[in-house]
Design goal:
Layout lengths: L1 H18 L6 H19 L28 E10 L2 E8 L3 E7 L4 H4 E13 L2 E17 L8 E21 L3 E21 L7 E22 L2 E12 L3 E14 L2 E16 L2 E17 L1
Antiparallel strand pairs: 1-4, 1-12, 2-3, 2-12, 4-5, 5-6, 6-7, 7-8, 8-9, 9-10, 10-11, 11-12
Helix pairs in contact: 1-2
């Protein structure tokens, strides 16, 4: 910059000399006129001060995935009708053991009172289960030739309640499989009366209460968004010699959280103690409706 200032000062002196008649030619004057503006422009151009580097903005970090909703309790209540025929042996000390049966087409004639319902409370993979039923029937059975009587009338009142729990082994939108277990309590009161023949007029009443431990599997599979195939199979024993229960159902959700179900169920128990015999199998179609809340 100092050298450039000296050059400009020399140029000004030469121009003053021209003005005072030193004899410089006109071409020198033109050259000076051309160089002077460039030199002045060079004098005025100043290098721009370096600006400090700006820090780079941090790249935004991706937002973390929203947490999964906490599990909540869900409850299901399902009253149902079970058109079960019965077949098996009942007995008392006074009347002995007799074979009785009542088929599906006899239900309207033999059934007196029936009340049945299932329930489930589910929290995540855990569930509480209940199945309660009460059946009051009066059956009339023709005894085979050679029996001490011609007919056997059986007035039977049976109460059964299963209470237990389950844990989901598989649980996705299309398939759920639970391991389940619990206790089933039975109460049976029967009155047997023989009619006709040598033993006609003989009768007796007895009752018993017992409990069995049960374990098995329950599951459901989505055939369509609103159609489900479900079922269960459980077996056990305890105070009875054998106790089992199995069913297969098709359910249709015709209203949100309301389902209708139709299927087939069979269950049996074999209890014998001190002359009291209740060795029965009940099976038949099942129709029910369930609500979830």
């Amino acid at each position: 910059m100092q050298t450039l200032s000296l050059q400009l000062q020399s140029l000004r002196q030469r121009l003053n000399a021209v003005r005072s008649g030193t004899g410089l030619t006109a071409s020198a004057l033109w050259l000076a006129a051309l160089v002077a503006p460039q030199a002045l422009a060079a004098e005025t151009v100043m290098p721009e001060p370096a600006t400090p580097a700006q820090p780079r903005a941090a790249s935004p970090t991706p937002e973390s995935a929203p947490p999964e909703p906490a599990p909540q309790w869900h409850f299901t209540v399902a009253p149902y009708l079970w058109g079960a025929g019965i077949r098996g042996n009942v007995g008392h000390k006074t009347t002995g053991t007799q074979f009785v049966k009542s088929d599906f087409h006899d239900i309207a004639r033999d059934l007196d009172v029936a009340a049945m319902t299932m329930g489930e409370a589910r929290f995540g993979p855990y569930s509480l289960l209940a199945d309660v039923m009460y059946i009051d029937t009066t059956t009339r059975t023709r005894l085979p030739d050679g029996a001490p009587a011609k007919h056997l009338n059986t007035d039977s009142k049976t109460f059964s309640a299963f209470l237990g729990g389950g844990y989901a082994l598989l649980d996705d939108p299309a398939l759920r499989l639970d391991a389940a277990g619990g206790i089933r309590v039975w109460y049976s009161s029967t009155t047997l009366s023989l009619h006709g023949g040598d033993a006609g007029g003989t009768s007796g009443s007895d009752s018993a209460t017992w409990a069995d431990l049960m374990a098995g599997l329950r599951g459901r599979y989505a055939l369509a968004p609103s159609v489900w195939l479900s079922g269960w199979g459980m077996a056990g024993a305890g105070q009875s010699r054998a106790d089992w229960d199995a069913a297969a159902l098709v359910s249709w959700e015709f209203i949100p959280d309301i389902q209708a179900a139709v299927g087939y169920r069979a269950m049996g128990v074999n209890y014998r103690h001190d002359g009291f015999v209740y060795d029965m199998v009940q099976q038949g179609p099942l129709l029910g409706i369930s609500g979830r809340f």
